[in-house]
Amino acid sequence: MKPAQNVLAPDWCECSNIDMNLFEDATALLDNLSTAILLFDTDKRLHSINAAGEDLLSTSKRAVCGQMIDELFIDFPLLDAMTECLKSDQPFTERDVELRISTEHTIIVDCAITPLPKSIFSNGAVFECINVDRNRRITREEDIMARHQATSALIRGMAHEIKNPLGGLRGAAQLLERELETEDLKEYTGIIISEADRLRKLIDRILGPSDAPILRQINIHEVLEHIRSLVDAETPDQINIERDYDPSLPDMMADRDQLIQALLNIVRNAVQSVGDHGTITLKTRAERQFTMGNQRHKLVVRIDIIDDGPGIPEELRETIFYPMVTGRAEGTGLGLSIAQTLIHRHHGFIDFDSTPGQTTFTTWLPLEAKNS
Questions:
Q1: 98 to 44, 77, 172, 193, 261: CA distances (angstroms)
Q2: Is residue 357 domain-resident?
Q3: 201 vs 93, which has greater pLDDT?
């Protein structure tokens, strides 16, 4: 195996009379693309990869440059197409290709293989691919965020319209209570006042917390360990809470109390899903060049809360983040709605994937300083 390289082979730059400043600018440009770019030579050996390609393979440029294509992928269905492309100098495109990155990681991509002129690179080819799964996730995320914002605006309007007459009703009951002489009659006005207060508190809960985040430097694993200890004290011994943390994650700027409230709501939902026995896993990972909404982030923390319960009913999946939506008779349907609101305030997002036996709620939070 040839030694690993961080950039295109220096001899390629020299033989092509390429200005190194221009070359470095081109490399920086490629690193800012969301399309994964992998450059192979005639032996199908990787010579260069951009940042999106590193993200695609979940590895670093230093680790993979110099490897053969069958070392990068467990199963590469386009091997014959690349061979033909290198032989005929004809480009090739394909949609919805399944790439197995590892035994546990398979992605769907749209891809293209383009031969490079021999004057630039001796019979090499560029492999470009776009993660279709990610694009679908971004589309779904934008849809959920838009619906959540529309629902929140509707609820705020309704809350305003309800609170005004409630205040008048409560005030009238208090005035009436002062005019009544017997305690028996005052009991009825007391009921009116207490029920008006209960409705106001319910509306405030539906609206969610109103305080802006107070940002401080925190360690996300300390937050998760605090949540684990709280839930562990509440749950039966037959429920196991496992941890799978990435120790390389840096500290982040966030409101510790609001993150605890948001993630605790999700973990408690997982506990209720598994019932009297089951396993819940708290998992953290870092993801690079990650897009949320219309903003791309260089680095985000991904928090997975996984349970082995029966899964989310199909009829609830499109509305599960709406307030007052719940699959349990005793539930309020406010936990996930509040969690989504709190995570949005940190420029993050919550999504889920659910099948019988495994439900994963994933929270993404940006780590770069500009969002702090």
A1: 19, 8, 67, 62, 38
A2: yes
A3: 93
Taking each helix axis from N to C end, the angle separating 256-274 and 220-234, rounded to the nearest 10 degrees, works out to 40
In the chain, the amino acid numbered 224 is: L
| Residue for token pair 């490079």 | 116
Q: Which of 207, 235, 255 is the last residue of a domain?
A: 207
Number of structural domains in the chain: 3
Q: Please write the tens of the pLDDT for every residue from 276-312.
A: 889 999 999 998 777 776 677 888 999 999 999 999 8
The model carries a pTM of 0.58
Residues 14 and 86 in one domain: yes
pLDDT value at 65 more than 90: no
Higher pLDDT residue, 91 or 10? 91
Query: Which CATH number belongs to the domain containing residue 121 in this structure?
Result: 3.30.450.20
What stretches of the chain show up as alpha helix (H) in DSSP?
10-15, 20-31, 51-57, 61-64, 69-72, 79-88, 132-179, 183-207, 220-234, 256-274, 335-345
113, 81 Cβ separation under 8 angstroms? yes
Range of the domain at 192: 137-207
Task: Please enumerate, as own/partner, the contacts of 98-101 that have beta carbons within 8 Å and a separation of 24 or more.
Answer: 99/73, 99/75, 99/129, 100/73, 100/74, 100/75, 101/56, 101/57, 101/58, 101/73, 101/74
Burial of 32 (0-12, 13-18, 19+ CB in 10 A): exposed
Q: Are residues 190 and 90 in the same domain?
A: no
Tell me: do 16 and 74 sit in the same domain: yes
Tally of residues, the chain = 372
Q: Which two three-digit tokens encode residue 315?
A: 């009829």
Give the pLDDT confidence score for residue 10 in this predicted structure.
40
Q: Which two tokens stand for residue 140?
A: 């779904």
| Separation between Cα atoms, residue 25 and residue 59, nearest integer Å | 23
Rounded to the nearest 10°, the torsion over CA 213, 217, 220, 224 is: -70
pLDDT at 138 (0 to 100): 65
Residue 172 lies in a domain: yes
Q: What is the rounded end-to-end Cα distance, in angstroms, of the chain?
A: 44
Closest by CA position to 302, among listed 320, 284, 327, 318: 284
Same domain for 198 and 225: no
